[in-house]
Design a protein that fits this description.
The chain is of the alpha+beta class. The chain folds into 5 domains: 144 residues, OB fold (Dihydrolipoamide Acetyltransferase, E2P); 245 residues, D-amino Acid Aminotransferase, Chain A, domain 1 (2-Layer Sandwich), CATH 3.30.470; 78 residues, Orthogonal Bundle (DNA polymerase, domain 1), CATH 1.10.150.20; 87 residues, Orthogonal Bundle (DNA polymerase, domain 1); 69 residues, Rossmann fold (3-Layer(aba) Sandwich). Helix content is 37%, strand content 19%. The strands form 8 sheets. Strands 2-13-10-3-9 form a 5-stranded mixed β-sheet. Helix 1 packs antiparallel against helix 2 and helix 17 crosses helix 18. The longest helix is centred in the first third of the chain and has 24 residues. The radius of gyration is 30 Å and the shape is globular. The two termini are 56 Å apart. 32% of the residues are buried. The chain binds 2-(butylsulfanyl)adenosine (IVH).
Length: 701
């Protein structure tokens, strides 16, 4: 153990500052971005080091230290749950022979006669996260993550949002045990994962690498509403602490789980001996590609529970079960061409066009190349023979180049420096803070670039923007190519244009009289739109739904935005600072917003658009609320509500929630152990409320 007592005060201070800063950064990554950069164990180690340092130098303890702050405690937001029965892991078999060896071990251990068969229950190994659900008298009372197997996190409220998890065990067939812990896997269907990523990308929010990560990120959310908004599912396959076991075999217990209201995987089945079990493995492997959830192998369990009991455990895995994982799905093929796609914001994205090849039952003809640097790092060239891999990730990736097969005339790939669609310069901007080149090269053509124009139009009509029935990506492309819709405003002039056109839309393939009437009606229905939707639809860089809402809330009308950032505002510098001061708006967003509203072609477009569309001024969610327009600061540890709950509620009532106390603060709501913010409020004469007083205030009591 490092000796922290021998540090000089100066050294200790320095270390304290560095550690605190690091922990704060990890807190932000964990809580705000839901994207932890280190493991919980590494985080705990940092925290312990800081605590030891403070023990050796108590003077360093301040209210601001991560050791003193709520939410920064080692529990990191969720309560801990001790598993009454540990949550174990599984031993692995790597071949059919390993499975046969497993059977021999089982037989030896049990001392079975040669003519006595062992039945195995074969179940798909679901690629998600395991959870344990405790039922007392048939009611769901607590749910926990696996954690380290002995201690997990209390995620009861999050698990309650999952439809496959019954609140109460239905007990038509039998009485339900007094205590029963159902265990299984939380996962996200692949189709939901894809839709989630699309909306995340549209919002400029984090895109998940695979359904498993998406499930994890969705489940461990302090804000339960986020969990509830994601389609998570649950398969039950095991149990922990139980006052009674409802069956004599694994298959019987799972049948009971089904009666109780759980989803049990339908591909699971009883195999009378190991050869049948190996067949079951092959069948499940064949089905793998057609499933809407990721599985990464097959788990075999001795079916008889009395035998499971006798076999028991070795260290952290049961002797009665084994997992056989599928081999990584790889294939070799030829990279025909590197194609550059241009997105809405002008990003040039390389895509590998492949000689079609089957990987794990799926025909693959494209692979992602990520970006310019990735191509260079792996020296990927057109004509190369490449190894591709389809992991849980849905888009296949290139693992490596088979250099022996590289054609002699092959040349390194040169990433274009001009846009393949419009020919404008394509540049890599410097990141203002890091000074490094951005990973993405972008077309500078803006509106002259038809690729950007089409992608922007698609965004303009997308679900969270104008959301026009019957006007999706396909129709946009068609109308664009027929010169009917080139800019957003053309959408609202489509009917008129169609009247004067020789080739009428009703004669296009896939349309008809009725479809066209419906389309025009749908467009007309959207001639009135909320400001936040409208701002989101504009497709300003970095402005997803959240930022669009912030802008709507703070500027209230489209005219105000145009005025604030227009050429006639002499105080544009001040306007920019005010924009930056909005809680949640960072420099990149502020730059993009200012640029968008000050550019003349955008201003022209907005003028045109607002002549067709009525953009409704933003209305504070609840004007009558007693805290509407007030600024409130929550501090200390809240006991009657979670902090995110408090914040959301306050914002819904039209209050602004701030992180720091100033003379402009209307209320400071102080929970237990409130520190410097409370002191500051008192010194400034800001009204301080207890949690209960705040709740009384907002309920109008
Ligand atoms: S049985 C003692 N069955 O695999 C029994 N586990 O490597 C332990 N898993 O942590 C679990 N599908 O997250 C079991 N059908 C299945 C499973 C399964 C997925 C996961 C589970 C566990 C890990 C063990």
């Amino acid at each position: 153990m490092e000796d922290l007592t021998s540090l000089s005060l100066e050294e200790a201070e320095k270390l304290h500052k560095a550690l605190s800063k690091e922990i704060e950064q990890h807190n932000a990554a964990y809580y705000q971005k839901d994207d932890p950069e280190i493991s919980d164990a590494e985080y705990d180690a940092l925290m312990i080091r800081l605590k030891k340092l403070e023990e050796a130098h108590p003077d360093l303890i301040t209210q601001e230290s991560p050791t003193q702050k709520v939410g920064a405690a080692p529990s990191r937001g969720f309560g801990k749950v001790q598993h009454k029965m540990p949550m174990l892991s599984l031993d692995n078999a790597f071949s059919s022979d390993d499975l046969r060896e497993f059977e021999r071990r089982v037989r030896r251990f049990l001392g079975l006669k040669p003519d006595e068969d062992v039945s195995f229950f074969a179940e798909p190994k679901i690629d998600g996260l395991s959870a344990s659900l405790r039922y007392e008298n048939g009611r769901f009372v607590q749910g926990a993550t696996r954690g380290d197997g002995r201690e997990g996190e209390d995620i009861t409220d999050n698990l309650k949002t999952i439809a496959d998890i019954p609140d109460e065990l239905s007990s038509e067939s039998e009485l339900v045990p007094d205590v029963f812990e159902v265990r299984g896997e939380v996962y996200m269907p692949i189709s939901d994962f894809q839709t989630l990523n699309e909306t995340q990308a549209e919002k400029g929010a984090k895109v998940f690498a695979n359904p498993r990560n998406a499930a994890a990120g969705s489940l461990r959310q302090l804000d339960v509403k986020i969990t509830a908004s994601r389609n998570l599912r649950f398969f039950a396959y095991a149990w922990g602490d139980a006052s009674e076991i409802p069956g004599l075999t694994q298959s019987e217990v799972l049948a009971r789980f089904r009666d109780w209201g759980f989803s049990v995987n339908s591909l699971s089945n009883v195999c009378s001996n190991m050869e049948e079990a190996i067949d079951a493995y092959r069948k499940i492997e064949e089905l793998r590609a057609s499933l809407d959830y990721d599985i990464d192998g097959v788990v075999f369990k001795v079916n008889r529970l009395d035998w499971q009991e006798r076999l028991g455990f070795v260290s952290r895995s049961p002797r009665w079960a084994i997992a056989h994982k599928f081999p990584a799905e790889q294939a070799t093929t030829i990279l025909r061409e590197i194609e550059i796609q241009v997105g809405r914001t002008g990003a040039l994205t390389p895509v590998a066009r492949l000689e079609p090849v089957t990987v794990g039952g799926v025909v693959v003809s494209n692979a992602t190349l990520h970006n310019e640097d990735e191509i260079q790092r792996k020296d990927i060239r057109e004509g190369d023979t490449v190894v591709i891999q389809r992991a849980g990730d849905v888009i296949p990736q290139i693992v490596e180049v088979v250099l022996d097969k590289r054609p002699e005339e092959s040349k390194p790939y040169e990433f274009p420096t001009s846009c393949p669609v419009c020919g404008s310069h394509a540049v890599r901007e410097k990141n203002p803070t890091s000074g490094k080149d951005d990973a993405v090269r972008r077309c500078t053509g803006g509106l002259v670039c038809s690729a950007q124009a089409v992608e922007r139009l698609k965004h303009f009509v997308s679900r969270n923007a104008f959301d026009i029935d019957g006007l999706g990506a396909k129709q946009i492309e068609l109308f664009y190519n027929k010169d009917l819709v080139k800019t957003p405003v053309d959408i609202f002039r489509l009917e008129e244009k169609d009247k004067n056109s020789l080739t009428r839309i009703r004669n296009f393939e896939g349309f008809g009289e009725k479809a066209v009437t419906n389309l025009f009606n749908a467009i007309n229905d959207r001639r009135q739109i909320e400001l936040d939707r409208f701002v989101y639809a504009l497709g300003i860089r970095h402005v997803g739904q959240g930022n669009a809402r912030l802008l709507a809330k703070n500027y209230l009308s489209i005219d105000a935005l145009l005025e604030t950032f227009g050429p006639d505002n002499p105080d544009i510098g001040k306007a920019y600072v005010e924009l930056l001061e909005i809680d949640g708006i960072g420099a990149a967003v502020a730059d993009a917003v200012k640029e968008f509203f000050s550019e003349q072609h955008n201003r022209d477009l907005l003028k045109d658009l607002t002549s067709e569309v009525d953009v409704m001024a933003f209305e504070a969610p609840d004007d009558d609320s007693p805290v509407s327009g007030k600024t409130v600061v929550f501090t200390g540890s809240l006991e009657l509500m979670t902090r995110s709950e408090a914040k959301a509620k306050a914002e819904n009532l039209g209050a602004k929630v701030s992180g720091s106390v100033s003379a402009k603060t209307d209320y400071v709501v102080a929970g237990a152990k409130a520190g410097s913010k409370l002191a500051k409020a008192e010194s400034l004469g800001v009204q301080v409320l207890s949690e209960q007083e705040w709740l009384d205030l907002i309920s109008g009591g």
